[in-house]
Amino acid sequence: MEITKFEKCKEIVVSIILNYSEEIQQKIHSIDENTRLIGANSPFDSSDLIQIIVEIEDSINEEFNSNITLTDEKAMSRTTSPFLNVGTLLKFIIENL
Questions:
Q1: In which residue ranges of the chain is pLDDT below 70?
Q2: I need a labelling partner for 44 at 20 to 30 A (CA). Which of 24, 31, 32, 64 fits?
Q3: Residue 17: how many CA atoms within 13 Å on its side-chain side?
């Protein structure tokens, strides 16, 4: 059975978030599409989020031989931030692939 783009992207995003949270000694035991990336309920500050997004961009571009940029004007001008939670980020990545 072939893994879908969405599943592969989710695997990449979850892996990077878990690895990064370990690096900064921020305990996150599980991640799902509702896991907050920004705001009061997020375990990350803005500089953490930037690091995570850069790593995700690099991994997605390498995996899919693409050249997407997740922090472009299109992302910043949305009514709902694509960085709100894991689900909104995955949706934004798939839209741009």
A1: 1-2
A2: 64
A3: 26
The CA-based dihedral angle spanning residues 5, 58, 81, 51, taken in that order and rounded to the nearest 10 degrees: 140
Residue 38 · residue 76 · CB < 8 Å: no
Listed residue (40, 43, 37) closest to 71, CA to CA = 37
pLDDT at residue 1, rounded to an integer: 52
- In sequence order, the 6+-apart residues with CB closer than 8 A to the CB of 33 are 85, 86, 87, 90
Q: What does each C-alpha distance from 7 to 10, 33, 50, 66, 80 come to in angstroms?
A: 5, 12, 23, 17, 23
**Residues 90/53, Cβ–Cβ less than 8 Å:** no
Q: Alpha helix locations (H) across 1-97?
A: 5-23, 46-64, 73-76, 86-96
Per the DSSP assignment, residues forming a β-bridge with 85 are: 36
**How confident is the model at residue 64, as a pLDDT?**
95
